[in-house]
Amino acid sequence: MNKKGFKDRAVMRKRMVLALWFITAVFGLLIVRLSYIMIVKRDDYSSRAEEQWTSEVRIEARRGRILDRNGNELAVSANVYRVDFDLNSIRQYLKKNDKTTDDIAPLIAEATGIETATVKDKLETKLANGSDAGSATLVRRVEKDVADKVNELSIQGVIVSPDTKRYYPEGDFLSHVLGSTNSDGQGLTGVELQYNEYLSGVPGLRISELDRNSEALDYTISNFTTPIDGKDVTLTIDKNLQAIAEKVAEKGLVDNKAKRVSILIMNPQNGEILAMVNEPDFDPNNPFEGYEDFVGETDAEKLQKMWRNSLVNDTFEPGSIFKVITMSTAIEEGLVTESDQFTCGGSLQVGPHTIKCWKHGGHGTQILPEILQNSCNVGFMKLGEKIGSEKLVEYIKKFGFGQVSGVDLPGEARGIVKSAENMNDADLATISFGQTNTVNAVQYMTAFNAIANGGDLIQPHMVKEISHTDSNGNVVIDEEFEPKTVENVISESTAATLRDYLERTVNQGGSNKAYIAGYHIGAKTGTAQKVNPLTGGYESGKYISSMAAMAPIDSPEITAFISIDEPSNGAYYAGVVTAPLGKVLLEDIFNYMNEEFSEDENVILKDVVLPELRGSSVADAKKVLKDLNIECTVEGDGDTITNMQPYPGYAVKEGSTINLYTDQNESYNKDVVMPDVRGYSKESAIELLNSLGIETTIQGDGVVINQSIPSGELISEGTVVKITLSAEYEED
């Protein structure tokens, strides 16, 4: 072989090798690309393909009901309808009938009340890739008359199906607990959000296969899955107790000109929440209305404030109500006995700090239960010193502080517990009487319940059970709430001792304005200055006044918590502000659950100050008395009340019968009885006295502590009475 031939063959061989490498590279790239498509992009391309050869219409499930413990409906799904387009079926219909979307859009628009252009846009909906969509939703939650009009059009592919519209029959009742839903019927807040998975159910689907022209294939069977309705959620809430709590909270809000009033009622034996209310509230039927009255820099902030469940989502320094935890620790550890003495001179020097008692003159020498009765800060600082920081923190955590209670509502705050390592002597002193650390109300009541039930920390809960109704109409219980329990955080004997001390506090101490004759109640009030979240310091003139109570004291079946945020009617100490409101709450609870609480099974009858009825028509007078639960007899044939016995201003018990007269003798028409207005706010006292024709002069601020004319004295209309007010703390 000559040299030239050899070179040609070498070149040829080189070219073949290069070609082979090129082909190999191309195949390699194809393999990589195919692998990428098959592995990485498989789901994406599969879904795109499926969109093009299937038509899918979603059918919503009916949302489950929310019920109170007695089966009363609190949230339901009303019977409404939705209109969806099976666009592939509609295109077939148009083709067969030689029509266009311009022909049917006006008909659908007229039936539904929707703009024709909007309907046409929905009929011509495109996918993201530009191809024709298989389905579209025109409108949801329309009434039956609209649904009937659409059905009467008989347009193939225009689908009318049941839909749900959330409805709250009681309006703003229990709103912060129930929460609300969004436009898609999904939970936004409260139980609606917490149990959304159970309430929502499972939507159904209608799926049909399409040919290359996006038309339904002949002889193919559409897949149809029936929606599974949501389950019913039964709460532990007692509708009657909730109504009582809401009425009392509203009264507290108005009487104290407060920022917010919150009330919580529980069963301490099993952790059930029987009532939960925050005033002001909102209407879950219109959850985006009314936020303008709340504080916030933006509309969103105001809205969140309106929806906020303060009892769960907010923390606060508990103040004197925390003293039961400190005392429980000391008793449980055997550090004190009932006869131990504590001397209070009005303040205590703790390192470089002088920390004052609320009673600047001091309480003198007291034994252990008396420092709780008198809510003596100095006594509790000395108690904290005996306990020590490490042991106190140990019990604070045992009682569940610094961690969520586990209540089944969204957004529970944890609170702040200072560690023993970071605690100085001043911290130990203030924590002992309820400052520095923070808690939420449900968290606190979980600890308080442990004292009530004998020492067990029981998870608080809102839901009792989850159920559904089977095809035969039988209620089937799917789940029952089983609360977690930590047993014996304190002993039964310690808990019993604390309950005894708490009853003494009501009978003899700072919570005595909650005393109700014939009933064994234990309670503790507390007043805490609010902390400015921006500066970290205490805000002048801003307080939270609270009270926790239990009854009957031997084996409590009910615990109650009241919080008044920023009372601004002249008084703020809980012993003056919250305890009287607590008495109203407990009276109503006992009247509702009388047999369980009363030692003599007699219903508690409230005192009612008789209003001025003289000059009123007989019909109006009867209506006023009926609203006050007072009976009457009417003597005379006249149409106008000219006299009454007893006179206006006299206090009678509910259910009493008074006499009304309609004769023409009006000589006695100027006499009234001076009522007892001690403990009233200035506004409430003036309103009552003015309604009776009694003039007033005012001295001081706060609540009425003295009146110049004794109650029960017969006086003439126009008489001037001097009422003295004070915001000074008597006993906390």
Question: If you had to describe this structure to a student in words, what would you say it looks like?
Answer:
The protein is an alpha+beta fold and 732 residues long. The protein has four domains: 3-40; 55-234, Penicillin-binding protein 2a (Domain 2) (Alpha-Beta Complex); 242-597, Beta-lactamase; 607-726, Trypsin Inhibitor V, Chain A (2-Layer Sandwich), CATH 3.30.10. Helices cover 34% and strands 24% of the residues. The strands form ten sheets. Strands 2, 3, 4, 5, 8, 16 and 17 form a seven-stranded mixed beta sheet that branches. A hairpin with a 5-residue loop joins strand 16 and strand 17. Helix 15 (377-387) packs across helix 17 (425-432). It is globular, with a radius of gyration of 36 Å.
Give a quick precis of the structure.
With 732 residues, the chain is an alpha+beta fold. It contains 23 helices and 31 strands.
Mean pLDDT comes to 86
What's the end-to-end separation, in Å?
Answer: 120 Å
Shape: globular
Let me know the CATH homologous superfamily of the largest domain: DD-peptidase/beta-lactamase superfamily
Keywords:
23 helices; Beta-lactamase; 732 residues; 31 strands; Penicillin-binding protein 2a (Domain 2); alpha+beta; single chain
